[in-house]
Amino acid sequence: IQGMHCIQPWRQPEGEQPRVRLLGSGAILREVLQAAQHLQQDWGVDCEVWSVTSFSELEREARAVSRWNRLHPTQPQRRSHLQDCLSGDVPVVAATDYVRAWPQLIADHLSAPYVVLGTDGFGRSDTRAALRDFFEVNAQHVSLAALDVLRQRGEVDAAQCQQALAQAGIDPEAPSPWLI
């Protein structure tokens, strides 16, 4: 009802291992769960996985809380469900089989780095797996996005990202799906 819930909490106590939060919406949630497993097993990245049922509800409630706080500066400040769930600076990767603009709605309400993967454009694929690969929203691309945001923070090195590209068979020179 509130727009999201945790389906896989952190597996390890906070420590030296890199951490990332993965958000999955709709049918892509299965891909996100596969990515979490891959990140944990192959790269030592601890993942917290959230099922997002409504980006619009999350944004609407976060906007209402922000407005209330602005109009009541002398009152104890409220926190939105989104802020409670995704507080701090742990990177967040959101994947959906809808257009990227939908999960982008919540970006202004997060303090952490936020990466969105979605299906912009028109797919020309014969299977769901091919469509997810075409739009770069499958488990391999979710894993790569997580590793890349961790690389940008200095928590994994570029060689690991390059190795992930090679293992997944991702062509870095392929055209952007929204341009095709």
Explain what the structure shows.
41% of the residues lie in helices and 16% in strands. The chain has helices spanning 29-43, 55-71, 81-85, 101-104, 128-134, 139-152, 158-168, and strands at residues 4-8, 19-25, 46-52, 92-96, 114-117. α4 links the parallel β4 and β5. The longest helix has 17 residues, at 55-71.
What are its keywords?
5 strands, five-stranded mixed beta sheet, 180 residues, alpha/beta
Contiguous helical run count: 7
The secondary structure category is alpha/beta
- Distance between the first and last residues' Cα: 37 Å
Q: Shape, please?
A: globular
Rg for CA atoms: 17 Å
Report on the biggest sheet.
5 strands, mixed
How are helices and strands ordered from N to C? EEHEHHEHEHHH
- Give helix % range: 40-55%
Determine the mean pLDDT.
Answer: 92
Strand order of the largest sheet: 1-3-2-4-5
Low-confidence stretches: none
Number of strands: 5
Give the DSSP E fraction (strand runs of 2 or more residues): 15-25%
